[in-house]
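Reviewer comment 2.1 asked that we show a complete input and output for one of the modelled complexes. We chose the copper (II) ion case, as it is the one discussed in the main text.
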Amino acid sequence: MERERIKVINPLKRIWEGARIGGAATVALAGTATVALAAEPEPWAVNLQPAATDVMSDIHAFSNFTLWIIVPIVALVTILLGIVIVRFNARANPTPSRTSHNTLIEVLWTVLPILILVAIAIPSFRLLYKELVVPPADLTVKATGYQWAWGYEYTDDAYAGISFDSYMLSDEDRAKRIAAGASEASLPRLLAADYDVVVPAGKIVRVQVTSTDVIHSFAMPAFGVKVDAIPGRLNETWFKAEEPGVYYGQCSELCGKDHAFMPIVIRVVTDEQFAAWADAAKEDVDEANKLLAGLIAKQRPLAARDGEAGNLEVAAR
Ligand SMILES: [Cu+2]
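Response of the prediction step:
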């Protein structure tokens, strides 16, 4: 009995803690967080991932706002249904009233929903506009969906020549890298990839998205980004990640048998680290990743000792 209770309580507690941690991370972002973030799905999490961009913070706010509207409506309808069931069933109320019109109520149940919809539409359209209109970008990365991997290309003249494909690490690859010194936490299963997209923090990154075979979808939950990758078309989106860290997303359009195995990894680094990486990556991405691992280790020696930047280091070997 006791054991069963614990089993039930445990997932609930984890959901609650997930939500709390999510909230705390959002607050930390607004302040001066120096701890590198890693945004990824958590077991038993129910809320949205912690926001790493302004757009995602707005999505959080909009989601909470609509919740404040939905919950009272559901509660009201449930209470009204309860009253009808108890007071107006055939046994309790054998001779029903023959009322069929009430002008006041009819006006109210037409006007109130309209006002509620307008109240939802205004912040909703504002948010859609913010997501869709790409501000002047500091950097452009083109992501191409393949069955089943992502290809990345830095299309600005300043970064000409940087391109690589990014495949999910298989269980064997993970085991090899962990044996070679990378921490398990730095290689989340089904999310870690062999090559990360590297971008600078606090800079506007335009992402151009396309595909060569079927429709994929480029999605990064912590950034509030999701855009279809369609063969023959070039879609656009953008993000400005506020804090260095590693962020995980996935293809979000059913695209074939390995749809679940084409993760997206974006490593957000400081300006100086990005400049050094980009310079080296024009010649050789492996060398650039090795250099970046060294820079991250220098900046945060403790994290490096724990193998947090391990994926880069080991990948570069
Ligand atoms: Cu896909």
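The mean pLDDT is 85. We note this here for comparison with the apo prediction described in Section 3.2.
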